[in-house]
Amino acid sequence: MTQQKKRLVDTKMVPVPSLSIVPERDVDKRPVLETRHLSIEFGGLKAVEDFNIAVGQTEICGLIGPNGAGKTTVFNLLTKVYQPTTGTVLINGKDTAGMNTEQANRMGIARTFQNIRLFSNMSVEDNVRIGLHNQVRYGMFSGILRLPQFWQGEKKQHEKALDLLSIFGMQDMADVKAGSLPYGAQRRLEIVRALATNPSLLLLDEPAAGMNPHETEELMQNIIKIRDQFQIAVMLIEHDMNLVMGICEGICVLNYGRIIAKGTADEIQSNPVVIEAYLGSQKKEDA
Known about the structure:
single chain; alpha/beta; Rossmann fold; six-stranded mixed beta sheet; four-stranded antiparallel beta sheet; 37% helix
């Protein structure tokens, strides 16, 4: 972990009762996400243990750690891909116990994936419109009979999809097959599709993977833009420390399924436990 000079955000972080920290601007609001003693076991192996975190309503939060630390497993728990062995996940103060992935999404949590999951043979616009499915305002009979309500709804969805694509300057690609897009554009499209579900918390799993430095710089600016424009929280898993230290306000470090540090970018970069975790991982890879 080396000292990073470039910071695109400068936010005072303050403690909240959960022993976590949130941006000062969010301290008088209920956290968008709270986890309490969240754990999961696979065949007796604890993949995530006693994970406690709070994320402010408009916070950009980083979840980092060596490979195999359990980061994506945490995302799977938050989005109900996995059900926890113990513990609680609260979205906007509401318990998600027993919910499935679709129900959690309707509660306001959306995500992208480590491996891109687009409908490759569908157009860029249609991929975004899939994300808009929970905002359809016409009924089945209107759709079957092509009543005026159906066409009004279709027009609104088309306009909404283009508006979302414009965040990344992709509106002119609306009719292009998603699978024919360059890798970086597919990454951006997946973020747009997640945004289409109208989340209050957006989870990004390695959004900069495969991007060149210029694309990563644009991504950083766009994550801040998304947070500001939609007034939502963003939580990201990322190995690019320039990105993490450049835009994340609160950072949580995971190792062997347990939190080993929480704090601001400056605190995390100078934390000896975090440095040891990363250096230890590097030594193993070099061995």
